[in-house]
Every structure is written in C-alpha cells, then in structure tokens.
Backbone:
C-alpha cells in the first residue's frame, strides 16, 4: 500500500517536470534531424534538380561559366526539340519513346499473362520437384544481362530477331516472367485455396473459380508486380543497345545515350529527353505506391 | 440423401508423398460419420477425394448408387464446410447463401424461399445484410453451415469446421451441428483431430493413422476396445494406461505385481500389453487388499475429479481417475489396484488387439 502511495505522489511532480524537458530535447533533436535530412535530400536531388534546370535553360546559359543557378531565361525549346525535328515532323527520339512504350507495355502484359497463372499453379498444385523448378526459374535471373547478351545477340541474328521490337519484347518477357512468378506466388499463397474449393463445389470449373474468386483478390498484387516489370523493361539498357541497330527499333535509353558523344553535346536536349523519359515511370509508381509497399513487404509478417 | 462407399482408396501426389495408403469406408444413409486422426493421417485427403477436390490415384468412391470417380465436385451433389469457412468476401450473407442456388440456375422465388429457410434454421436473420468481414468467427461458421444447407445436398462434408472457434463456442456449435444433422437426417462426414468432438458427435468413428483405417466403431466401442495401441493412446483424456503384462496362473500380472482379470482366449506365446482406462484403476491406502505399493508422483485437480499419476515400480507411471473425496498428497505412499473387468490386451510387436 505504502509503495503505491509513494509512487502516486512522486508521479505527480515527475509528470509536470519531465515532459517539457523531453519536449525541449525532442524539439532540438527534430531540428537536427530535419536539417540533416534536408542537406542529404539536397545532395541526393541535386543532379535531378540540375537536370530540370538544364532542360529549361537556353544553350548559352547551359554553358555559362560560372554556372547560373537562378538568373537564366526559361525556355521550353528543348522539350519541343525532343519531339519535333528542326524541319518539322517527328524526331527519331520521339520514335524511340514510342518504341519504349510498345516494348515495355507489351512485354509487361505478356509477363503478367504468363506469370500470374503460373504462380497460381505453383501455389495451388502439387508439382513434381516444385522447389527445384522454382529455383530454376529464379536462377535465370542470377546472371546479369551483360553476361548473356553476346550469345543472345548471335542467336537473334540467326533467327532474324536482331533489330526487331519483337526480339526486345521477348527478351524482356523472358526476364520478367520469373520475377512475376516469384512475386505473384507470394500473393496467391495469401489467398486461401478454400475459396476455389467452395466455388468448385458450387458448380464452377477450376479455371472459372480462379477467374471469378481468386483473381479479383489478386489485383493489388498484380498491379505491384506489373509496375516492377514495367520499370525493368522501361529502363533496360544493355539488351536494348546490343540487340538493336536502327533508329526505327531503338528504345529510349540507348537513344538518349546516343545523344551524348560526337563533337558537341546538346545538354539541354539530353536533359529534356531524360525528364520526358523518367516521367511515366514516376507517375505510374506514384499511382500504385500503396500496392508497391504491400508487394515489397509481403510475407515479412506472418499472419 | 445417400450413403457413401469408399473402396480401396489410395492417393499419391506427384511429388511422391502418399497421403492415403488404403482406406475402405462404408457410410450409411443418414449417418453422422466422423473421421478422426492426427494431422497428416489422410483424413482430410479422403474427405477431399469424396468431395472431388482431389482425384484419387486408385480406388472407387460411390455416393448413393453413383460411381463418382470422374465426376467434378459440382456434379456430386454434396456440400462442404471448410475450416476457414470460405465465405465469398465480396458477397453479403444473403448472397453467399444464394450463390450456390443461383449457380444451379434455380428460379428467383425458390432461391429466396430456401435462403430464408436456411437463415431461419441457423438464426441468421440479423446477419443477412452483412459482409463476411463484419461477422465473428462463430457467425461466419453458421453462415458457412447455412450455405451448405440451402443446397439440400445428398451429403455434408465437414472439414474441421470448429477448429478455429474458441472452446465455448465450439461446444455450442457441436451441439448445433449434431441437432441439425439429426433433424435433417442427411448423411454427414465429419473430419476432426479432436477426440472429444469425435466422441460426442459421431454415430460411428473411423480412426485413421498414416493413411490407413485403424478402427471403425461406435464411440463406445472405440472407447472400450481400441483396436490397436495407436487408438488406445489416441482416445480418452487422459489416455489408456498401457501396461506390459504376463499371463501367469490365470492372472495378468505386470512387472510391479499389479493383477488384472484376463480376457478369455489369450494367446500365450507372446509379450502382451494391457490397456487400462484411468477409471479402471484405484488408488488406495497402502497395503489395502489386492493392491501393489506405489507412490503419488503428482495429483491434477480438475474440479470434479482428481487425476493421480502413480509410480508403481513399472517403467511407466499410470494415471488414475479418482473422485474428489479420495485425497492423497504428492509423494504419499499408496496402494494401486485394478477394479474394472478384463481390459483389452494387445500384442506388443504387432500393436494390435488380441483379446
């Protein structure tokens, strides 16, 4: 009894005294933290900021020494140059953007269409040597593209896939299917198989049960997986530069890289092209960011 | 309604695991048949094979007079209740119930009528407009049962339907299921690993172990004369005491000297194990007539009875169920004697009942 009274008494003043101190300490800490993070963010984001600035500077400001941070004339000419050629009509760069959209889009759709049912099958059915098969599927991602690009280049030349969009679509699909299977298997595992069992007892076939009951529950996972696949195909550089040779097929990453080099480099154009290239993925990731986090942290917590 | 015949069922998965070694079952029309066994014994696989969710490797399944081996689940005219209820998450209770009927293409009026009837039977009235995530576990399971009822199937298959409920609710639902089955008179196959559930529900129980049927019988038969040491150890809480015995001058005698009445026709030429229920033993004052000396290792007070663990000089301590008015302290010297009739006796090497 005495103990509890003592505690109650001492608790009173303590409650009055400590919190302001803690708050003061907390406030100081918050200031330091904010300052540190601001500096870090500035350092990290400087290249991006510089790219944005360069893309809206006139050429003479781009090359000005000392560099102009604020007092330059804003122009959108570089962005226009990305899409419109000097003599009118579309630029080869805009063609490359279109190629990127086609190649990344189609390969992502293909990888999803192939990978999701495969993940479902691996999750639901007892398959001979399932673990070994899954490991084999994953192992195709072990090697960096640059290691396999030469043999693939030779094979593609033989079968006529070299310098075709189909060739790029196929190779990106091949890289994205294993990823899709592994990531989607986790999502499928989370959906109880009993839904499908119940639906089958209610008169649906197994595929209908999957389509009507499991698939809708998988949509967030599919969105997350597809965005990762899309980002991979959109950004991919090594295959794109080795397996294409003509402007008609080339995707944006090698096309932008191609702007650098030669005697003069139009940095304004490079910066503008890079921004145009980065935007779609940024917007897309922003839209599905909740699902992305869900996808990345999936399985981290046992239910 | 229909009986279910399972003949020489064998299920082997592509990865080589054998889930069901050999199972024969003959379930009568209108029977509540329980399959009991530890996890991995093949009971759920057998049930899923009856449902058509798994295709058996060999063996036949008949529901009524129909051989259903190659029929998809929907055409077997059965309903199943799952451990995780499997209510469709995007549908309200009402639509969950109506779902299988609509899938069958029944006219609207009849769907309505049957849903109302099932809802009344399972007292779901106030829950009809909720979605599954707004129902408690018990409510979800009642909805799952109602969804099985609406189809008026030839048989119900229950896959551990009460496992996810808390103890109190489980007892209530057990009563409810038993009552329901009695009222409808529909054949029900009920899978569980809980022996209390099996004993209290089943008209007959099949005990499965390692993909084989160890014993089929009424709860009383299974309790009184377990067909093997496995069954003896599985049924009853605390389980049977398994005591190594020898047949000598007309008595069964343990190493400690405990004397049991032998059943007739005991084979003489092998080592025997007697299965003695805790209630067929008695803890006495030391030196009481017909008792062997022992020592109380521990006493578990269960409120209405005490379970004594007694060391009587044998390898294994025995458990004895005693009424509350007989009290011995831990470590007290006591006597131990057998009070019941002849116990079931097992062959120590084959582990099967010999007499």
Residues:
């Amino acid at each position: 009894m005495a103990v509890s009274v003592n505690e109650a008494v001492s608790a009173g003043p303590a409650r009055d005294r400590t919190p302001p101190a803690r708050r003061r300490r907390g406030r100081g800490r918050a200031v330091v933290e904010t300052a540190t993070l601001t500096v870090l963010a500035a350092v990290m984001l400087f290249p991006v900021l510089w790219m944005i600035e360069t893309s809206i500077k006139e050429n003479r400001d781009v090359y000005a020494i000392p560099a102009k941070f604020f007092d330059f004339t804003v122009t959108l000419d570089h962005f226009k140059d990305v899409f419109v050629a000097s003599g009118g009509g579309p630029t080869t760069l805009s063609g490359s953007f279109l190629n990127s959209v086609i190649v990344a889009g189609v390969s992502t759709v293909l990888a999803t269409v192939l990978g999701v049912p495969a993940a479902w099958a691996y999750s639901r059915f007892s398959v001979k040597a399932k673990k070994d098969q899954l490991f084999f599927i994953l192992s195709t991602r072990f090697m960096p593209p640059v290691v396999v690009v030469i043999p693939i280049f030779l094979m593609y030349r033989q079968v006529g896939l070299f310098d075709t969009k189909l060739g790029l679509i196929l190779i990106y699909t091949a890289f994205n299917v294993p990823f899709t299977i592994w990531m989607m298997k986790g999502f499928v595992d989370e959906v109880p198989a009993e839904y499908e069992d119940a639906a089958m007892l209610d008169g649906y076939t197994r595929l209908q049960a999957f389509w009507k009951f499991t698939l809708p529950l998988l949509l967030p996972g599919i969105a997350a997986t597809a965005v990762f696949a899309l980002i991979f195909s959109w950004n991919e550089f090594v295959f794109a530069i080795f397996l294409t040779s003509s402007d008609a097929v080339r995707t944006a990453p090698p096309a932008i890289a191609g702007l650098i080099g030669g005697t003069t480099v139009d940095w304004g154009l490079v910066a503008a092209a890079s921004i145009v290239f980065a935007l779609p993925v940024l917007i897309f990731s922003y839209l599905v960011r909740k699902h992305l986090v869900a996808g990345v942290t999936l399985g981290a917590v046992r239910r | 309604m229909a009986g279910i015949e399972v003949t020489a069922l064998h299920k082997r998965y592509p990865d080589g695991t054998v889930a069901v070694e050999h199972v024969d079952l003959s379930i009568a029309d209108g029977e509540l048949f329980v399959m009991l066994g530890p996890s991995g014994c093949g009971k759920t696989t057998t049930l899923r094979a009856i449902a058509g969710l798994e295709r058996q490797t060999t063996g036949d399944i008949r529901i009524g007079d129909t051989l259903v081996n190659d029929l998809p689940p929907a055409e077997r005219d059965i309903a199943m209740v799952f451990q995780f209820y499997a209510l469709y998450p995007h549908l309200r209770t009402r639509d969950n119930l109506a779902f299988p009927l609509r899938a069958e293409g029944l006219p609207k009026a009849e769907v309505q009528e049957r849903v109302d009837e099932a809802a009344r039977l399972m007292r779901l009235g106030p829950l009809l407009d909720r979605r599954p995530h707004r129902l408690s576990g018990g409510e979800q399971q009642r909805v799952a049962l109602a969804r099985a009822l609406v189809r008026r199937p030839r048989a119900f298959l229950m896959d551990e339907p009460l496992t996810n409920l808390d103890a109190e609710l489980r007892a209530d639902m057990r009563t409810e299921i038993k009552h329901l089955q009695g009222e409808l008179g529909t054949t029900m196959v009920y899978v569980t690993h809980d022996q209390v559930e099996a004993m209290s529900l089943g008209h007959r129980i099949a005990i499965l172990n390692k993909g084989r049927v160890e014993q089929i019988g009424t709860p009383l038969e299974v309790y009184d004369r377990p067909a093997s040491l496995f069954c003896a150890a599985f049924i009853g809480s605390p389980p049977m005491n398994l005591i190594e015995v020898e047949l000598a001058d007309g008595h069964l005698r343990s190493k400690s000297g405990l004397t049991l009445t032998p059943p007739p026709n005991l084979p003489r030429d092998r080592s025997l194990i007697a299965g003695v229920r805790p209630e067929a033993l008695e803890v006495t004052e030391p030196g009481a007539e017909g008792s062997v000396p022992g020592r109380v290792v521990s006493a578990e007070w269960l409120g209405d009875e005490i379970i004594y663990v007694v060391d009587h000089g044998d390898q294994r301590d025995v458990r004895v169920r005693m009424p509350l008015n007989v009290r011995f302290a831990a470590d007290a010297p006591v006597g131990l004697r057998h009070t019941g009739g002849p116990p079931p006796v097992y062959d120590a090497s084959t582990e099967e009942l010999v007499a």
User: Anything to note?
Assistant: The two ends of chain B are 38 Å apart (CA to CA). DSSP finds eight helices and 20 strands in chain B.
